[in-house]
Amino acid sequence: MAGIIEEKRSALGIRLLMANLPIMVCDLLRSAFAQVPDIQIVEPINDVQQLLDISKKGTADIILLGSSRVENIFSAVAIIDALPECYKDAKVIVLTQRPGYAEVISLFRAGVRGIFCSSNLQFNMLCKSIRRVHEGQIWASNEQLGHLVSSVSRPKSTDVTDSHGRPLLTTREQQVLHLLADGMSNHELATMLRLSEHTVKNHLFRIYDKLGVSNRMEAVLYALTPRNTLPAPVAPTSKVASSKIRMIKTG
């Protein structure tokens, strides 16, 4: 029975659902796909709430999800996380502007199977990406693959403990330091962790204070050295340090 169903699906072609795309882009793509026999367009969905409606009975093989109409790339991640059961087997390709390191890593962690840059949209390549992802492959540029390699090959020994092996940093601070070691900017940190840049700065101030360093480079070098242990931190005595602590608490 499963074989018969799969054969029928193949006869219908790749079922493509376009979602969260600008109406003009959606209309242009729909007209173009009408000339592609192996890709069948499912009724496009421009309303995110309609896409996430758990009562829907629709289905698709590939979801081409736009991210340009939302505040940031992580809204696309949130959409993917909230997709209803009827789309659980669909593979997602995100159509977006050129994404940075944090965006690429977060999208692939969310289960995206392809990222297609809308800034250099070539229809024949878009069709190719849909076919490749449908076959089970990953669609990514060399730059995006470089981000993925970097994310798994960078040093992981950023855990910082005192002389008794107790962590000096909170879980969130350790997470910030871990990403800081990858060279992320404050904006990228905020994007990756879904925090405001103000909150990221507060975390950095706390990290600097606990490690006795004055900037991000010193913090990373400290964390990556074999001697990444410190005595238990003492309460700050200087007025500058005290005012910094107060600023963090009130910020």
TrEMBL record:
PROSITE patterns: HTH_LUXR_2 (PS50043)
SMART domains: HTH_LUXR (SM00421)
A biological process term (GO) from this entry: regulation of DNA-templated transcription
InterPro entries the record matches: CheY-like_superfamily, Sig_transdc_resp-reg_C-effctor, Tscrpt_reg_LuxR_C, WalR-like
Coiled-coil stretches noted in the UniProt entry, renumbered to this chain: none
GO MF annotation list: DNA binding
Domain HTH luxR-type per the UniProt entry, residue ranges: 162-227
Record's keyword terms, sorted: DNA-binding
Name under which the protein is recorded: DNA-binding NarL/FixJ family response regulator
